[in-house]
Amino acid sequence: MNHPNQGLESTGNNISVRFLPLFVVFVLFSSCISIFAQNEKVFYGGFAFAGNASEIGRNYPVAAKLSASEPESTNFFESQARTFFKEHARSFSKLDLQFGLARPGDTPLVLAVALTDEKVLREQLGSFHKLVIQLGFELLILDFRTMEVAVSRPIYIEFIDASRESFSDDDVVARMRKMIWGEGSQLFTAILEKSVDFQIRGKNQSTLQIRTVSIGEKALPFLPDAYRQSTNTYAQAIAQQFGALLAGKAGLAMLPYAKDALNSKMSLRFADASMLQFKIPPPTFAVDVDLKGYKKILDKSTPAEALWLYGAFLGIRVYEPEFNKVFFDAPVKFGVPKVVPSSQQTVDEFPIVSEALQGAFLEAIQQMQKDKNCSTKVLNKCKL
Amino acid sequence: MQTMNRSILTWVTLGVLLFLPPVIRAEIVKGKGQGEIVYKGMFKQGSADERAAITEAKKNALTRFAATFDTARFELYKKIESEVLSSIDQYITDYTVLDQSTDKTSRRHTVIIEASINATLIEAAIQKSSGAAAPTGAAASTGGEGDYITFVFVARELASRKAFDAKRTTVEINESADTGAEKARVSDDGQSAERSLEKSSVTKKTTGGNTETKAEELSYRVSTVTEVDNAVNSVLTKARYEAVDPSDAGLEIQSFKKDFSSGDDISSETRSAAIKTLKEKEIRYLTIANMDVGLPDKDEVSGMARVYVTVTAKVTDLKPKFPKTVASIAGKPYAGLGPDSQVAKKNALNEAAARSAAELVDQLRMKNVR
Q: Does CATH place domain A39-202+260-280 in 3.40.50?
């Protein structure tokens, strides 16, 4: 005789068996969605100086002094960066930023901020002393498995000051400190702006790199002595500026500019004194910037003032470097007006041509975006 | 219940297989390729002609990737090239079209792609083709184990340099000869006679000789490094060679060190003793390498200390009546970087050991030495 509940039990089992696969599929599907929705873990790696370890003092004299000004146990840049990233980890909404030690089997990706360029320009204009501090940084994601730069985002900040007194070295250090200290500083405000769309590029994401920057002779008379004597240094600053605009305005995946294109490596010295060298992978597309020159013409003149027009003239070439397939090659120019009162004895022309250059870069980006060939074949593929 | 258990197991296993991240990751490298086809009739997007051009571009990307291999590896790749190209989609996991253009006049369609190349799969194919993945050569006859290989990798640094002054030997030959003429004159009246003697002397001096320059006497500090041995062992083991530790093989490492401390090769005594020992122990291959460690300098790009290590190595097959060299490397330099010269030296030695062992393995595979 059958037990009265036997049939029920068996029916219950049958129901379980029938729905179990569905349930398992549901659970796996949900977990699968959560796996894919999860951001990739990236460990915070710290602050680093880019370039030769032994030449940090020469390449970044003010930053090195500022770094050493803090007590020995705390590196100024590192402590500022760590505090900022810890407090704003959630602002990097497309990354899962982790702090602490990575375990074996963890992601090999590490986030770092590297100082790549430091320029201090001191000039006397009439009775005034002018100070310009330009700092170039790269916000990087480094792949420690392949020892390659996986993602880079150029950041360029500038500080201008004027005084009747000349600026001492300590004054310069104090101004630079102001540019970096605290979360409201120029540096961290710039990083915070970029945090929302800073992400690991996709597997088939194409990349763009500023490959060469050439400075024409007609640009030299407008440059400060420091740049005139070393055009490579000015080229680095130009690459940094244009790279920052391409990433910021056009949202492109950029690779760092390598001073020596044949030896495309990026050395980083971290705050813990470790020195590491990362390979900059070959880019999908490259950009050559040819700064042909700056020019000024007198537009109007009255006894009270004169109106000058300053122009920046560029050649921009976007191409695929291995097969030398050119997608965009055009001259770009941009002019800015400057009214000079007759009473003014001297004119500081560098900020004016820098403004013209900035305008020319934005004009170039617009032209590249408007150009169908360049836009569809290059920019869309490099978009983050 | 058993049905239900089986069902759960099946689903869970399926789930694990589907959703767990793979433990072993293939090495994917990016490479670019260009493909061009000549089409007939009208060219259409998505047509067989376009697919053919992309296939050509994939092949080109793989060929360009293979061009980065060293000579021995490239020779091994050539053996499997046709097989790889015939199943190109296995080796190129995905691609992005960077550009395509159609020239209607010449009826040519060109495409440039950036491809993701599965380098691990290519390496596996090379290993399979060279037999490294299978039991080694003698395995069939000996029932499982292949021919054994042992190695002595010594690192050496210059300890002292003794320079000799050039030795000059001068030879001087002096020859002299007197010549004379005697004259006699009788006076006209015949009453008196006069005799005179004219004498001249000739001296000949010949100088010569030779300068003997003696080569510098170099002495080296020789050492064996555990990390180097481990690196070599790892390469040989991964390539499925039966590597035997030199001390287990019964080799007198000290004799090798002593020989390399003053010369560039081992003495005939050390060599004979090693061959005898290895033949007795049925170890077929002997690899000897000396790694000359250079002086540290500075790498201009990174600012780090850099040390060059130059490797000279050869593998000898001891099976024939007269041992013969089956693979060799002559003076190949490898560089290592580090925050100081000690770390740079260590890195250079490890790099040199691993890469030279890999090159020797490729040469052995090329000659079907397993």
A: yes
Assigned CATH class of B24-129: alpha beta
Contacting residues of B for A327, CB less than 8 Å apart: 99
Q: Do A320 and B34 touch (CB under 8 A)?
A: no
Pair B285, B244: CB distance under 8 Å: no
Rounded to 5°, angle at Cα B249 from B248 and B255:
100
pTM over 0.90: no
Cβ pair A285, A303 in contact under 8 A: no
Q: How close B99 comes to chain A (CA, Å)?
A: 7
Contacts of A278 (CB under 8 A, 6+ apart): A142, A147, A148, A149, A265, A266, A267, A268
Check: CB of residue A246 under 8 Å from CB of residue A145: no
Report the gap between the CA of A211 and the closest CA in chain B (Å): 17
Q: Can you give the residue ranges of every domain in chain B? A: 24-129, 139-161+217-366, 167-212
Other C-beta atoms lying within 10 Å of the C-beta of residue B126 = 20
Q: Radius of gyration (Cα) for chain A, nearest Å?
A: 27
The model's confidence at residue A12, banded by pLDDT at 50, 70 and 90, is very low
Q: Whose CA is closest to B110, among B101, B119, B118? A: B101
- For all residues of chain A together, what is the average pLDDT? 83
Residues of chain B found within 8 Å of residue A21, distances taken between Cβ atoms: 7, 11
A274 touches chain B (CB under 8 A): yes
CB proximity list for A202: less than 8 A, separation 6 or greater: none
Mutate: best of A19, A31, A52, partner B, most B CBs <10 A: A52
**Residues from chain B contacting residue A55 (CB–CB below 8 Å):** 303
CB contact under 8 A, B303 and A53: yes
DSSP A164-179: SSPPPHHHHHHHHHHH
Look at residue B243 and tell me whether its pLDDT is greater than 80: yes
DSSP states along B130-173: TTSSSSPTTHHHHTS---EEEEEEEEEEEEEEE--PPEEEEEEE
ipTM summary value: 0.71
- Where are the domains positioned within chain A? 39-202+260-280, 208-252+284-384
